[in-house]
Amino acid sequence: MSLRVTPCADQETWDATIDETGGHPLQLWGWGELKSRYDWTAQRLLVHEGDTLVGSAQVLYRKLPPPLRSLAYVPRGPQAAEADRARVLDALSAYIKAHAKPVGITIEPDWEQPGAPLPKGATEQDRTDLVSAEQPEWLKAVARVGFSPSANTGLIPYTLIVDLTQDEDAIMKDFKSSTRQNVRKSFKAEGVRFGLVESDADLEQVLAINRETAKRAGFAVHSDDYHRAIRDLLGDRSQLIAAWEGDEVVAFVWLVVSRRTAFELYGGVSPRGMKLRLNYGLKFWAMQHCKAQGVERYDFNGLLNDGISDFKRQFASHEDLLIGTWDRPLSPLFPLFSSALPKVRTALKKGVPAAKAKLDELRGGAGPASDAPAGDRPAGDQPTGDRPTGG
Questions:
Q1: Residues 6+ away with beta carbon under 8 Å from 292
Q2: How far is it, in rounded angstroms, from Cα 232 to Cα 234?
Q3: CATH 3.40.630.30 fits 4-156+323-378, yes or no
Q4: pLDDT tens for residues 71-82?
Q5: Inter-residue contact 150 to 338 (CB < 8 Å)
Q6: Paired strand residues for 149
Q7: CB–CB of 44/30 below 8 Å?
Q8: Taking the model in full, what pTM does it have?
């Protein structure tokens, strides 16, 4: 029986589907609404076989200069059982090509790389060997329906995911010994408390720490209005957790949460919070908070070769690897777009005018570039503000 793809226009139905199928928080309705305020358009698609739901995907479209039209991007989706993944992707691609006519579709699924997780301290060669090994039939089938791995990654596939179905002692036992000590000390610190940020005044303190953390570490962050929109559009799926000393916010971690997964968007700590090592207790408090809701996985959102990632690695004895970024061309122009994307990203580091010039060059110099200067779905969509969450 052939698969049938239909749009979903009801938020309650959509979010219930994401929760029931173990979907990722970046597939929730509110995340699509957030991105729709910033150069994207969101569409939610359900895939049925007869009366049975076999797949779903929230698709984000980014406008590109003519003649490329747009790019379709599925962050941490779609949702489908392992045996159905390839045919769900094939059905989604056919529907998207017929109705939106984008240059191509990029997916970054929440699907574990076969053979993962890896032991703590795994090297890049270890990861390469794992990806190069003989792959299971379901992943070969994904390739047979036209998808191939891409180096144009937005959401980092190399990450750390803590299993919250364990009891709390087992979770903490996996921490580095000094990390366990810092967690216990922070919980006993005088005048310190952990909890959800609920007031606008405390949110303003969080945003100030976020800006200062970015300045200190040398990365870019979204505007304050963008962060307020996360709170407003995702509602209780946005969970901003902080550590206070007295009335002062000294550390925070910002999560988005589906029934199965908690995903770190941002994190930051003030100099006072670092001195008290409250970022350690904050991480464990956040895990406890999510576990109490029945959430099964706590995703630290990416590991790089930097100090922030070294901090994250203290909270587990393993490291996770997802299958990464996969593309399927939907137009003969896709190779042109794919080859130009790294140049656009390089130009973005020099400022928006340079990026627009590169896009103008891409479209043959025929007039001004699109108002969406990046045109490069994952770089513009990386929810961490182009850096991993920190401690």
A1: none
A2: 6
A3: yes
A4: 999 999 999 999
A5: yes
A6: 326
A7: no
A8: 0.89
